[in-house]
Design goal:
- The structure is a single chain.
- The chain is of the alpha/beta class.
- The chain has one domain: Aldolase class I (TIM Barrel, Alpha-Beta Barrel), CATH 3.20.20.
- Helix content is about 45%, strand content about 15%.
- An 8-stranded parallel beta barrel has the order 1-2-3-4-5-6-7-8, surrounded by 9 helices.
- Helix 10 links the parallel strand 7 and strand 8.
- The protein is globular.
Length: about 300
């Protein structure tokens, strides 16, 4: 079993989660890894296609090179996040070359996102990518349901989305999806939303989303695989901690640390200051918000002393 497979499986069994931190700017890689190591956690460093198209991560190869500079064996893995089949702008994506490149570069886990497709097409494409990933000894994440937020254009008010369960993952479909695709982890929609990435919206605070924990429990029972919470920034601590007890074993966090980096860089014009802001925010998330400090040995099996250094 690969390190991410083992860590996520152990997290699910113990009511913990593996955080995945997205790095839309390459200088964010160093402080994220430092914070994870100092908090004695196990986490994924993640890059998504939209982050090299709409931000400045430059692509899977550039992220892999930066990751290799700062990697701390036993603390982190490198994850290919959202590779959509249809992207947030409605364009069809040539997804297989991206996945193959990441596997060739040594990414430890990959995600194919066919959530904007009809169910049967999502199943067929996901199964194809799962087979490719498994041949490389790597776990594959997929998505079913609509975790909104990245799309261009107006979205329904959050309360309307939640009240009407818009885009929520259907438990019966999820059971079929997991059975027919063989995916290792499933990203689900239970009230969570992505942070906006379009124009001035990307600087705004996310709506205060909440999670339908009873719906999550139904999904966990139906699928019996580790579930993934995208849009992990800005959720209440109570919802997040409860979600770990009900099947969420991986939590993706992007806007929370991206905005810390961007705001500090605008204010100071200093990359080092922006990196320090990312370190501090990542540490707060791991230690105070997610309460994962010192859990690495429970996921990785290697003892280490937790020390909150406050420095990169």
């Amino acid at each position: 079993m690969s390190a991410p497979s083992e860590a996520v499986a152990k997290a699910r069994a113990q009511g913990l989660a593996v955080p995945a931190f997205n790095v839309p700017y390459l200088p964010m890689v160093e402080p994220v890894i430092a914070a994870v190591a100092d908090a004695d956690c196990w986490a994924l460093v993640a890059t998504a296609r939209l982050e090299w198209l709409k931000f400045a991560s430059q692509g899977p190869a550039a992220v892999a090179r930066e990751y290799a500079r700062w990697a701390r064996p036993g603390y982190t893995g490198l994850h290919l996040d959202h590779v959509p089949v249809i992207d947030e702008d409605g364009h069809r994506v040539d997804y297989m070359p991206i996945v193959r490149e990441a596997l060739d570069l040594g990414y430890a886990s990959v995600m194919i996102d066919g959530s904007r497709l009809p169910l049967q097409e999502n199943i067929a494409i996901t199964r194809e990518v799962v087979e490719l990933a498994h041949a490389a000894g790597v776990p594959c994440e997929a998505e079913l349901g609509a975790v909104l937020g990245h799309e261009i254009g107006p979205h329904p008010p959050y309360e309307e989305l939640f009240a009407n369960r818009l885009g929520f993952t259907d438990p019966d479909e999820a059971q079929r999806f997991v059975r027919e695709t063989g995916c290792d982890w499933l990203s689900v929609a239970i009230g969570n939303v992505h942070g906006a990435i379009a124009g001035l919206l990307k600087d705004q605070k996310k709506p205060q989303a909440r999670l339908d924990l009873e719906h999550l429990q139904r999904l966990a029972t139906a699928t019996r695989v580790p579930l993934v919470l995208h849009g992990g920034s800005g959720l209440s601590q109570a919802d997040v901690l409860q979600s770990m007890q009900r099947g969420i074993a991986k939590i993706n966090i992007a806007a929370e640390i991206r905005q810390a980096y961007e705001q500090t860089l605008r204010e100071t014009q200093r990359v080092g200051a922006a990196q320090a802001a990312v370190y501090q925010r990542t540490t707060w998330l791991l230690v105070d918000h997610l309460r994962l400090a010192g859990t690495r040995a429970r996921l990785d099996g290697t003892p280490h002393h937790f020390a909150r250094s406050g420095e990169l």
